[in-house]
Amino acid sequence: MFVFGELMRVVATRSPTGDLVIIATDFSARKTWKLYKQRWSIECTFSSFKKRGFDLERTGITERSRLQRLFGLVTLAWMFCLRLGVWLSQTWPIPVLKHGRRAVSLVRHGAQHLVDALRWKPEQFMAVLEVLIQAFCPPGAAESEVVTY
């Protein structure tokens, strides 16, 4: 199909949850899926930075250096919540709802536990801190694949 004089491919598939995904692109099908997977990961990250998580949009900060510092701190907090969520999901799995998706994201799972430890269970905060200082092993990776600095 041609769009504005450019050849476009339509790539379609079903996600693991059964949702139909259709993308119009000028890349090959294989490259499209690789790029879309990265893009979707970035979209989910920014979504949790905004209204679904850290509510970064409500800041009144406009000075560039302060915004950079704020983004750095929010990114660090997001990584802490993700790390904690991955660790928690290994022992306390996130419930799967009727439509087949998890009730909360790994980041939200970790954030809820972190807030709970900070507000109500200070004795658990030391265990949380121990998790956060360990090397991060993403889901599916072997412990031997973790790179430490």
Automatic annotation (TrEMBL):
Q: Which Pfam families match?
A: DDE_Tnp_1 (PF01609)
Q: Which residues form the Transposase IS4-like domain?
A: 21-80
Q: InterPro entries under this entry?
A: RNaseH-like_sf, Transposase_11
In Swiss-Prot or TrEMBL terms, this protein is called: Transposase IS4-like domain-containing protein
